[in-house]
Amino acid sequence: MTRYFKLLLVQLRVSAAAGMAYRADFLLEGVMALAWMGLTLLPIKVLFDGRGSVAGWDEPSAYLVIAFFMAVRAVMEGVVSPSFVDLVERIRSGAFDYVLLKPVDAQAIVSASRFEPWKTFDLLGGIALAIYAFTLRGAPPAVADLALALLMFVAGLFAMYSLWILCAAASFWVVRLDNLTYLLGAIFDTARWPVQVFRGIWRFVFTFVIPVAVMTTYPAMALLGRLGMRTALVTIGGAILLLVFSRLVWRAAIRSYTSASS
Amino acid sequence: MSLSRTLRALPTLLRVGVAETVAYRAEFLVWILTTTLPLVMLGLWSSVAAEAPFRGYTSAGFTAYYLSTLIVRNLTGSWVAWQVSEEIRLGAMSMRLLRPLHPYVAFASSHVAAIPFRTVVALPIAVILLVSSGASALTTEPLQLAMIIPSLILAWVITFNVMFMLGAIGFFVTKTMALLNLYFGMFSLFSGYLLPIDLLPWVLRKAAEVMPFRFMLSSPVELMTIPLDAADVATILFGQLAWAIVTLLLALWVWNRGIKRFEAVGG
């Protein structure tokens, strides 16, 4: 276990060093992160200037959903999707052979092989937005709610990670899959609104098929103390199941890997 | 680079363009599928308008607006900036410069050739639009209907010019990606892509009126969805025409300045 932790630290350090090589970019990315935050918030601002609530969500609680959206997106664009692009490239070029030769689990290496350090800005933006939402509400969240929200957030991250591992496993069979990154990103865009906004079939899809609701709406509801214990437990169970399932598919995929290099 | 020679080359260029589109059809499809922002926005606003109309927009009105946006974006969107800056960065531009044909024409014809394919994608959206929001939220004015195609063509030209110019900035700076991100942010905000321009806060609305972005997207959408009188239609089309000319001159100016300092990386 400590070996994996050390490995993670090394990979993090290498990526941070690579990122710091472009210091001007770092500043630019920070400014861009702020600009995108503004663009994400604008429709909500316009909406609540003319209306008190939508689908049971008022202005501060809608901000909380967006805060979790920004945090999950920071993890997705900061770790998961760069590592995925890296993996697809390795499979295509045959360099994945070397990953398999290393004396650690291949999934551990490819899951965090590359970081985009400047995505930390998005994470900080999300936290700042959440704090702002609670100053608007005038009362801080209860400690128990905060703990549950963090737990739900982690469950959401697991769900997202499992989806990506499934895609990664698919790329052993179908090599050209880097476009999938954009597609998943585009679907995840729907997570910026509370899932109750969507009706009928779409709410079902976003809750159960592609569980974007789990990643942002449920943590926000937990933070507000509105999430039922049963939903919370089912969500955590579902996330763990998905994680196990993706692990099994990944192992099956590894077995069918036929190197591209030799 | 005489005009007649360029004209003679056009049929071949278009044929090559069609072949390219067919070869990269999967990439095309994914590119189109990832254009989901209007649908995400539609999800929010149709829910809002279902409770009560929002500042004049009914649920059907929002559906009509955002699906029209999706159609216009699919037909007029352009990726020429990425092509131009990549070719500059990798040195492939040198080959293009050897040909007796202006790269503007070459890129433009390859983009024009992609339009039939993009129409095939836009058509189902148009059908969904007609069925779901009915004719109620769409225009039936003959003048407006007649002007939709010219407005779309002008929107395409303005978008292409702006993107060509952004690509040509690659002659001066190596990292054009950040610039393109910035452009897309401005475009989303001021073109009506994110929100209808009349819903924007006052300051942003005023800013949108003097910028070229609304003529790239909002103009054709307005012609499709909002009842306008003849004077408004004329204002929109003349605005588009003026920006088409201005952006063409700007694009060619940046191109000519850049070409002088091109050092053919990679060779």
Describe the structure.
The complex is a heterodimer of chains A (262) and B (267). With 262 residues, chain A is mainly α. Chain A has one domain. Chain A is built from eleven helices and two strands, in the order H-H-E-E-H-H-H-H-H-H-H-H-H. The two termini of chain A are 33 Å apart. Chain B contains 14 helices and no strands. The radius of gyration of chain B is 19 Å and the shape is globular. Chain B has one domain. In chain B, helix 1 crosses helix 7, helix 4 crosses helix 13 and helix 9 packs parallel to helix 14. Chain B has 267 residues and is an all-alpha fold. The chains are: A mainly alpha (262), B mainly alpha (267). At the A-B interface, helix 2 and helix 8 of A face helix 2, helix 3 and helix 10 of B.
Total number of helices of chain A? 11
Helix- and strand-based class of chain A?
mainly alpha
Mean pLDDT of chain B, as a whole number?
Answer: 87
Major sheet attributes of chain B: none
Roughly how much helix do the residues of chain A carry, as a percent range?
over 70%
What oligomeric state do these chains adopt? heterodimer
Number of helices of chain B: 14
- List unreliable stretches of 5+ residues of chain A: none
User: How much of the residues of chain A is beta strand, in percent?
Assistant: under 5%
N→C terminal distance of chain A = 33 Å
Q: Which structural class best describes the helix and strand composition of chain B?
A: mainly alpha
